[in-house]
Every structure is written in C-alpha cells, then in structure tokens.
Design brief:
alpha+beta, two-stranded antiparallel ribbon, 3 helices, 30% helix
Length: 84
C-alpha cells in the first residue's frame, strides 16, 4: 500500500481471494490507514482519489470501470458488518 498509495495501513481480516488465472490472485482485506498521505507514482498513474462505495458501484454499472472484484469485496464487507 505504501508504494502504490503513500498510505501506511494495518491489515485486518481478509475479505476475499479471487483467482484470475492459476498463477494470479486478487486479495481483498479490511485495512485501517495508520499513517502517510495520498501519493502515487506519477510515471505510472495520471490521478488517484477516494471514491464512495456508491460512486464505485455507479462507475461499474455504467461500464466506465471493470471492477467486479471490488464490488464483490464491498458486498462481503457489508455482509460481515464492516460497512454500513
């Protein structure tokens, strides 16, 4: 997280593991920011910002981003009562 976002985080419970291919998996965790500030590698990304859950869901529905695994992770967090 520090390298990609500038935030130091403390990982909590693992929410989901999705295997895209036999050699690649996506892991979702509940995490708390414990330090740092938003920064990102400008040679790799044009922008970075926070999105509300509703904004992520709308962007996904509109086909502007393909993040079904993020949506499923949010749903898992909601079911576990991590998000209200």
């Amino acid at each position: 997280m520090l390298e990609e976002t500038g935030y130091e985080v403390k990982l909590g419970v693992k929410l989901r593991v999705e295997h895209n291919t036999p050699s690649h998996a996506l892991h979702s965790f509940r995490a708390n920011i414990v330090g740092g500030e938003l920064s990102f590698p400008r040679d790799e990304l044009l922008d970075a910002r926070w999105f509300t859950i509703e904004e992520i869901e709308e962007l996904n529905r509109a086909g502007k981003i393909r993040v079904e695994w993020v949506i499923r992770s949010i749903q898992d967090a909601r079911q576990a009562s991590f998000l209200n």
